[in-house]
């Protein structure tokens, strides 16, 4: 059986490489996302948001991942195109029956947003 930590690792790898078929398989149909730049309800909205952010994504530098039987917190630097400094980011994912059901992400988006205005 795949652990929540392994699912989280697969999620970040798939997002970074643009493998949205794998991402779809990791997300529950009713996944709920709340983050600094938006909200999404359901797998289609969540994938659309991940695709949008993926267009700005250069890489993810994971520093730590802490997990238990259902929850994973990943601490990473979000590197984006456009010259913004890497954004220190915390991502909490809740896993049920092998799929991510809830995602909460927090980071300071000001520098990323400023690069979009240039």
From TrEMBL:
> Signal sequence span per UniProt?
none
Query: Which InterPro entries did the record assign?
Result: NTF2-like_dom_sf, SnoaL-like
Q: What are the SnoaL-like domain coordinates in residue numbering?
A: 9-103
User: What superkingdom heads the lineage?
Assistant: Bacteria
Matching Pfam families: SnoaL_2 (PF12680)
Q: Per its record, how is this protein called by name?
A: Nuclear transport factor 2 family protein
């Amino acid at each position: 059986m795949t652990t929540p930590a392994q699912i989280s690792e697969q999620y970040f790898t798939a997002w970074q490489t643009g493998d949205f078929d794998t991402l779809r398989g990791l997300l529950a149909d009713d996944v709920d996302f709340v983050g600094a730049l938006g909200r999404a309800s359901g797998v289609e909205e969540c994938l659309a948001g991940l695709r949008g952010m993926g267009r700005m994504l250069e890489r993810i530098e994971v520093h730590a991942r802490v997990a238990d039987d259902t929850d994973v917190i990943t601490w990473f630097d979000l590197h984006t195109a456009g010259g913004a400094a890497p954004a220190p980011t915390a991502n909490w994912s809740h896993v049920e029956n092998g799929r991510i059901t809830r995602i909460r992400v927090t980071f300071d988006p000001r520098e990323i947003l400023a690069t979009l205005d240039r």
